[in-house]
Amino acid sequence: MVKKEAQKADLSRKPNMDELLFEWRSCREGDNNDEDVLEGLQPHPNLQYLKLRNYIGGRFPQWFLKMALRLESTERRFDRMVKLRLIHCNMCEEVPALGQLPSLQILELNGLDNVRCIGPAFYGIGDHSASRSNNSSGQVSTNSGQVSAKLFPALKSLWLSNMPNLIEWMEAKADDEVFEVFPNLEDLKIITCSKLTSAPSNFPNLKRLKIEKIDRLLPVKKICSNATTLTALWIKGMVELTFVQEVLNDSNLQSLILEECPNLIDIHGCGISLKELRILVCENLKELPKDIHQLQNLRILVIVGCRNFESIAIPSGRLGLMSLCHLTIAYCNRLTSLPSEMLESRTSLWTLNVLKCPNLASFQIDLQQLPSLVFLSLFKCPKLTTIPKGFDHVSSLSELYVGPFMDSTAEFEILSALSSSSVRKLSLHGWPHSVSLPEQLQYLTGLAALDLHGFGMEALPNWLGDLVSLQELSLSSCKKLRYLPSMRSLAKLRSLRIFHCPLLRERCTPWRGTNSEWAKVSHIPNICIENEFIQMSSI
């Protein structure tokens, strides 16, 4: 297609067209005429949503570069444009002038590989400022002297991603002019712009900021320096980040996620208004700050994959984290104990996950002090010898994931205490040398879902058929398991799943013959073996 053929579409005379997508094939070879084609496909300025994907012209056409500018009285701007997405326009070296689009709310620039600088042209200032005039966005302009003007007056979301050569994102500045920039921007994401070294510092209404895979810390400092309205900050893959205080300047922050920051050593100063704190794969972080107990509004605390993390310090006699609802600690190799003070009288806690901490030996808490606890996961902590007590007093607990423990009697104690509880779902993890299930399990007749993982028995006990409320049964990584009990009495059982049980897999099919276990399970509507449905209900 060439320009003349594209012009036959006559898009500029279609005022009722609201949305338009221009997309080319992602893999193309040889010469292309994308620039001419897109020049000929100029739409009517009433357009509200434009998406451009896989455009590989060396530059954007003139109508596109100047869609926000009124350079001559006969030219019309795209004043109704609300959403604009430019995706994988790999060859373009400049972004269009968009700052004076009065209705633009969502802007995505993704995969503009050759763009090195976002500067005055992006805002529609500089060389074009002398031609600006009064417009619907409320700008007041003159041809000389100081100017008061709003740029990106309606923009709420801005995403810059996968721009590997972007080095500079400049402030909106021009001689003798003052601009109000991004007055309504709430959501800013900068992802995989590894070479970026600078960014603007004026985001008066910014609420959510995500920064991912940027080598330098300075752009983050600049953005956060005046961001007094920020409520959510997510930083991922930031090598230069060592202290959270280097970037935080907002006591109103409610959500902080720090992920894959290998040199982070201190999160002190994250703000007393914080409601959510997630620290993921920050391998050099050793501890939480000693004043963590002062975060009285904290509802969610997650620490995962911090292999050198050692402790959570709660000063003696201090009660903190009183609003905590969700706690997850996982894959922390050097963690040996959790303080009992951390969870004393936490009436709001409903989810507690402690898993895959190989050196955790002590977890002394009384579940009786957690009256709202619904979900408890305490598994794959093999050295754990001191387990929580009070399982027989947690009437709210409905889901439990436990084991294996160094002392196998710990599992028996837990199951014995559960006999009169409200637990509906149980996931029990055992050792390969465990040749039988805990007998206490047979008394949990209220169970609706049971998951047995990693046991070494050859056969499941006959009393499994006494779990008359069972609706779902999952068997995984039981390498020696060959035989099942009769399950005809389990009238409510709707689902059987078998994973990584090679001997049972061979026997639990309808075509196995006399050695098949099929007759024991054929009444179950849904049977899945190694992610393949052998039998599936049509209902």
Automatic annotation (TrEMBL):
Annotated ranges, domain R13L1/DRL21-like LRR repeat region: 3-111, 439-500
InterPro entries (UniProt xref): LRR_dom_sf, LRR_R13L1-DRL21
A Pfam family: LRR_R13L1-DRL21
Superkingdom, taxonomy of origin: Eukaryota
Listed name of the protein: R13L1/DRL21-like LRR repeat region domain-containing protein
Organism: Cinchona calisaya
